[in-house]
Amino acid sequence: MKRLVLGFLIGCLLLIFAGCGGAPQGASSSASSSAAFATIDDAMGRTVVLDKKPERIVVTSASFLEPLHEVGGDVVGRPDSKTQMPDYAKDKTSVGKVYQIDTEKVLACEPDLVIINKGMNEKLVATLEESGVKTLVVDMKSYDDVKNMVKIFAQVTGDTAKGDALVKTMDEKIDAIVKKIPQDKHRVAILHSTNQGLTVQLDGSIAGSVTQMLGWENVASGSTPLEKNPDAAPYSLETLVQQNPEIIFVTSMGKIEEIKASMEQTIAENPAWQTIPAIQQKKLFYLPQDLFLLSPGIHYPEAVETMAKLVYPEAFK
Q: What residues contact residue 46 under an 8 Å CB cut-off, 6+ apart?
């Protein structure tokens, strides 16, 4: 009888411990996820979980330095850059040129997070993840991309209030610029000049994004993009004449004087250019590369003001 009672009591105790001890696996996983420092959706469609605040960050684009700094972040490694290197990053370890990031140099920094530029350095993701290094892929072409980037960086640093404040400030500056100019629906063409010739910039380019923000129409919108560049389309003078733009903007990585000389020669050699309203009315403008080819980042309001001021200089006196 004593043995039966003892057995019954032991069985009850086992049932009690089983009920208290093990939460279902899904609940445990959820608790673990909610305990993470940050859970971030990146530009590659991945959900990246940061278990703790990153202390050793490497970036593969100099354009990431300033927005990260503005939300309280710092880096141990960055790429070389002649035009976008703030003073506080000059002494940081170089990990190579932006188009030739040296994986060994990145790993030598012993990073716990590497922030990667979409469209340029995604090939690093697999190697770094295999080495146990977390990666975040970020896009920053359009203004919406930049705002999303700021919010992601604020999640990385844990200071989301700074991120929200920075986005609000940029929005307010851009709104003020747009309100300064007449609300005309200009037809705009954006040409990109290289040693190989001309291409046409589409809405996904920086200049295309700014054109939309100003309420103007990119005449190339909807054109079939180049196979290796979704933000550009092939150039055709015949098509440009048919599109009849009122304003033409030109971007290039070259020296502005050389670009102007090349464009003037191109225009002079073919009378068809003279039928385009933008040429007739002398509304051919050149955009600075630091704002329209290299991402302006948190200086997007300056890019908007630059384009608006070229067309309406009197509004900014």
A: 137
